[in-house]
Amino acid sequence: MAQVLAGLGTSHVPVIGRTLKAGTQAEVGFKPFYDRFEAVKAWAETQKPTVAVVIYNDHGLNFFLDHMPTFALGVATDYRPADEGFGEPVPRIFQGAPDLGWHMVNSLIADDFDISTCRKMELDHACTTALDLIWGADSVPPVAIIPVVINAVQPPFPKPSRCLAFGCALGKAIRSYTKDARVLMIGSGGLSHELGQFGKINQPFDLMCMDKIVGEPEALAAYDNDQIVDLAGAQGVELMTWLVMRGALASTRPDVLASIYHAPISHTGGAMMLMSDSQS
Fold this sequence. Notes:
The strands form 2 sheets. Strands 6-3-8-2-9-1-11-10 form an 8-stranded mixed beta sheet. A 3-stranded mixed beta sheet has the order 5-4-7. It has helices at residues 14-22, 31-47, 98-110, 125-135, 160-175, 203-215, 217-221, 225-232, 239-247; strands at residues 2-10, 51-56, 71-74, 78-81, 94-95, 116-118, 122-123, 144-150, 181-188, 255-265, 268-276. A hairpin with a 2-residue loop joins β10 (255-265) and β11 (268-276). By secondary structure, the protein is an alpha/beta fold. The protein has a single domain (2-276), classed as Protocatechuate 4,5-dioxygenase, Chain B, CATH 3.40.830.10. InterPro entries: Xdiol_dOase_suB. Residues 8-260 form the Extradiol ring-cleavage dioxygenase class III enzyme subunit B domain.
């Protein structure tokens, strides 16, 4: 039977990946962010997940303003990163998990989530950064991946409450899969930031989110998107990726295995949290 091992929430601002690629983590002001990921690496080495479901917002490689699904899920056999304006990425192939992916699609539709299904997707930094933080820059991680894209680009956005419910449906779908799979849920995005307004970081709001996401995610789901934009910036709605990740965990109050908040990382309130799903 498949099980959800844990949920990881992390920021994905591009400078994180570029610094990792350059090997200059020890030289930057946000070095503590990388240091704390050593605990995540140790967890992955011990627990050995076989699938990573990466929840993120696409930055124009697959979807743009003329076609923007609310929720989309990849069912391809493999995936490749593509140039998103920073130059051609190092070629690498990420293994997909199409059988589990199709099972999730069918389960989601049965639960009234009319998911967009993608037989081909290109990966941007929002998907690959978390994987590189765990398994190394430009690496091919020892897990299959299932990309899950959420519209955090063009209004109307899905409501935070809908995102939490979507995460619950994802977790239910995974746990009903009868084949073996050890799944790590990754919510990639946030926390507070806004492009074009450098420094629009709301540390008290970010820290409140990190507190509530553990045992009271419904308190975050009670916000509407206009409130989140006012409090956390236009790109602060990426919090929805953390809500989906958290919704997929069966535990009412998961154990926090590692956590850090560091501001700023570039123009972002940088954050990471790893939560064990002991009841999955």
